[in-house]
Structures are given as structure tokens and as C-alpha cells.
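Researcher: Let's try something more involved. This one mixes different molecule types, so please make sure each is placed in the same coordinate frame as the others.
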Amino acid sequence: MEVEIAQTAAQDGGQNLMELFWQAHIVVKIVMLGLVLASIGCWAIVFEKYAVIGKAKRANARFEQLFWSGQSLDDLYLTLGPKNNQTMAALFMAAMREWKRSQESVMRAGFQGMEKRIEKVMDVQLQREMARLDARLLFLATVGSSAPFIGLFGTVWGIMNSFRAIAVSKSTNLAVVAPGLAEALFATALGLLAAIPAVIFYNKFASDTGKIAAQLENFADEFSAIISRQTDERM
Amino acid sequence: MRIGLSISFSIHAAILLAAVVVLPEPDKFLPVKEESIPVEIVEFSDISERVVTTTEAKTDPPKKALPRKVEEIGEPVPDAELAKEVKKAALEPQPEPTPEPEKKEPEPPAPDPVKELIEKVEKQPEAEPEPEPKKAEAAAKPIPVPRRKPKVPKSFKVAEKKPQKKKPKLDLNKLSALLNKIDDKRTAPRNAVDETGTPATGEIANLIGQDQKLTGNEIDWLISRIGQCWSPPIGMKESGAVIPRIQFEMDIEGNVIGTPRVTNGSSNPLFDVAVRSAINAIYGCAPYAQMPPEKYNKWRNIAVKFDPRIMLGIN
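Model: All components are placed in one shared frame. Result:
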């Protein structure tokens, strides 16, 4: 009898991860697949954001160096013109474009309207840049908060199964309960596996984009101050 | 995004692969068989079990050993028992099957020593003294060698030599007693019927008087049969205190009638579980068709103790 039990245990109990997966109930399988996909998506976003935010930081640093190097704004505008500008440079280009366009109307309406328009244009460009940086970060947040619950759902389902197995076989042998529990716990493990990096990287990227946003706003304010000073000098 | 996705996907695939390949399978822990089991067997059901095995086993070894023994020892000599049987046989035609089993009774001890002796004789001269005296005593018809059942009945010489042979028998019994204590019991009651058990219908009449000795055998069979269907709850083996005793009734064909009853009790929470598993086991193996109908009164209403050590030990 002992030997039989051992044999059934050997047949039922999952030995490695693949067996654990294939033996699972269909619901638990779906949960596991979903969690794996979520994990893949999370890491894809993490890699992408890491590249994008790093690039934005470097671009900002480079532009600030150029901007405060004493170069005239027109020269800067000409050198940056053809490039695909990002973040701070994009703000600067939007403001300069508006400045150039407003040169004629300034004669008639004065500088008041132009300063307002330049601020507005920079504001809009800032929103666009931040939207680009923040894109898909919310997915990380969602996975980070919901993946544990999804995994928990799989676990509860698996445990339900193992209890049903007990009822059907009328035996409380560990061999009857163990497979269900193993697959159930595997679901929770996958949920945590997806959620933990998602939460960590969401926090990191959220603070990074927050810093960049603050940088951009500061630059916008500074630049509008400069423009305001220049227009006052011209009057 | 695509780059990130592909990187992420490949890393996941790699990790999964590594997990499947590298992660070792968990060690399978087979339940350790209790060493106490053999002890239990000897104490509890040794008699009946051995009888069963010996009757089966006896037939095999003797065939192999026969020629040599016969040659060396001389012609096989019927025992006192054999002689009696022969007499019976002469009187009644039916008992013919019985003599065979009887012969088998003394044999079980005999085969081992005889073989050993033979081997010794072949290998070493030292062992010879033992067999030699027997030969001397028995002259041409010495020791146990009852295996040639057919010959014995043919040669009815037995009756005269009974006294002489009794001595060698005693020796054999002592020898066998060293090997198996069971033999004492066998020689004492000397009921041919005991070992044959149910087989021949013609013997039923003989069996009736000897019910009690048979029941030990049958009950052992019943318990081991139930034990095969029984999976004791976890933890029951460890805490030996919880042993449900369950009484149930059977009809003459071995089907369980009515509901089994628990005749003891315990406050241990394991007890209910154990009772349920025990009742499942009783129903699970239900038709106990091998129980001899002629002794129906003995086993109609029976109580079984579900002690894991004994039940599983018998398996």
C-alpha cells in the first residue's frame, strides 16, 4: 500500500515547472499565462523607459550646457533647427518659433501678447514631452498593484481544486492534496514575480519623470523671464 | 518599444528555460517502511501465513531436492503420521487429499535441514554425522523425506517402523523448532484439515469440528484483504493511540450487510477520520468471497481493529 501511494504521488506531484504548469486546471493555466505575459510587458516597458528617460536626461544636460554657454539665441536656434529635438530643446525651439512668427505683430500689438503666447506654446510643448515620457508607465502601476491579486486568485482556485480532490478520493493523503497546492502556490509566485519589478521600476521612473518635468518647468519659466527681459530692453 | 519587448521576451524565455533545465527536481521521499513490521508479522499471524506459504513452497523445493535426497538417504520412509493417514486412507477413500497436506506439515522444517545437510554432505564430511545416525536408525527408511507422496501410499511398510521413526521426528522437530517455532504447534494438533483450509468440498464435514483453528487463518486473510484497501489518514501511524475498532456483519457470500459500527471511541480529532477511512476500506474490498461458508457462524459478525502497524504490516 505504501508503495502504491508513493507511485501515485510520483505520478501526480509535479516535479518540474513545466509539469506543474501542464497539470494545472485551465483557470490556473490562464492566470499563469496572463501573469507571464504581464511580466513580459512590464519588462519591455522597463527597458524602453530606461532608454527613453536616460536619453532625455542626457539631452537636457547637453542643451543646458549649450544654452548657458553665452551663444546668442538666434545662433542656437539655427544650429538646433534641423535636428529632432527633445524635451528642453523642444521647448526652446517651440518658444523661438513663436518668437519669430510674432515679430511682425509685435509692431502693432506690442510685446504683451507675444510673451503670453510664448508661455502658452512652451506649456503645451512641455505637456507633450511629459506625455511621451509618462506613456505606459501606468501599465507598470497596474501590474504592480493587481498581479498579486491575480496570482492569489489562481492560488485560491488551485486550493479549491485540491479540496475537491480530497472530497472525491475520500483521502487526506498528501499525495492527493499536494499537486493542487503546488500549482496554486506557483500562481502566486508568478504574480509576485510580475508585480515586484513592476512596482520597483514604476516608482523609479515616476520619480525620474517628475524630476524631468520640474527641470522643464524651471527652464520654461527661466526662458520666458529671459524673453520678457529682452522685450523690455527693446522698448 | 519593440526593442524593449524583444529583449524582455528573450530574457523571460531564457529564465524559464534555465528554470526548467537547471532547477533540480524535488527529491522524492518514499515513505520509510517501518522496521517493526516484520516483528508484528511473526507475532500475529505467523502460523497461518506460514502454513499457506509452506504448502505452496513445499511442493516446489521437494521436486528439486528429491532425487539427491532419495539417493543419499535411501528410500523415503513414511512417518508415523503418514502411517496413520495411510490407515485412514485404507478405510476411507475421501481423505486422500488430506495425507498430502499432512506430509507437508512435517516437511517445512525438514526441507531446510535436509538441504543443508545434503549440501554439507556434498561439501564437507563434517555434516555427515548428523544425517548418518538417522540413516542408521532408520536403516533404509530414515528421516523426514515424506515428499514422495505417491510412493508412500504405494509402500505400506510404514506401520511397523513407526516407533523407530518417532525418534528421528523428535530430532527434526527440535531442529525445526530452532528454525520455526510454528512446527511445534503443527505437530501437536496434527490436523490435516488446518492447512488445506477450504479447498476440497469433501472435507467440509471434517472441518466442522475444528473451526477455531481455521478462523485464525481466515481472519488473517480478511484483515490483510481489508488492509489492502485501507489508506490510513496522515498522522495515524505516528500517533498509535487512535485505533478504531469496527464491527460489521457479512452475509454468507462475504458481502457487507448493514452499516459497520464503531465499538470504541476517542476524543482525538484523527479518530473520526480514521473511522471513515476504515469503513471505506471495509466497503472497498467488499465481497470477501474467500471466507469459508462452512464457518459462516464464526465470521458473520466480526470486529476488526484498524491498527496501521498490523494492517499494513500484513500487506
